[in-house]
């Protein structure tokens, strides 16, 4: 199959032709660096693929890389990632033993003019669907015992457009994903904690995140 390029119509966007059939996570990571399955690669600095041990028991799925992740080429290395590591440790999950990735592998942003701050822009469902083959391949290789969905976009990417994080957060779920029964826990994205209006709201949001992650920790016990 000839890989589709960014000039293809939106309904034809897909990363599928770029995903290798074999080679494990290293092969996936190398191939993802050249993905042109949708236009998001044009403005991003680089592909930001998942990171962690193939034997990880838990996979954490976020929305997309942020500014720092785009610059460094690694997921969850910015402020939200540091907050997530702290929350995981407090909940009883070693961050070093988790596999972390995003539904979308390129940073989508708006920018008033070159040199100005790049502002995160949520990916569309179509863009998440186009990037889905990468996430499916990661799940197939890592085979986590538990998936933690960080925010609504991650949930929509794996469970469909009707997903609402507020309706199911903090509950242990069982759903079929790519033909496999998976256990999941949904919670907010750590960036939402950082966006809280004041210290009191931020403290409450952080405690809610930790509480949800404790459900994940108990599921892994």
Strand content: 5-15%
Radius of gyration: 17 Å
> Mind describing the biggest β-sheet?
5 strands, mixed
Overall spatial form: globular
- Kindly name the structural category: alpha/beta
Q: How many beta-strand elements?
A: 7
Give the mean pLDDT: 93
Helix content: 25-40%
- Ranges where pLDDT stays below 50 over 5 or more residues in a row are 1-6
Order of helices and strands: HEHHEEEHEHHEEHH
Number of H- or I-type helical stretches = 8
Distance between the termini: 44 Å
- Widest sheet, order of strands: 2-1-5-7-6
What does this structure look like?
The chain is an alpha/beta fold and 221 residues long. 38% of the residues lie in helices and 15% in strands. The strands form 2 sheets. A 5-stranded mixed β-sheet has the order 2-1-5-7-6. Strands 3-4 form a two-stranded antiparallel ribbon. α1 packs antiparallel against α4, α3 (79-91) crosses α8 (199-220) and α4 (125-142) crosses α5. It is globular.
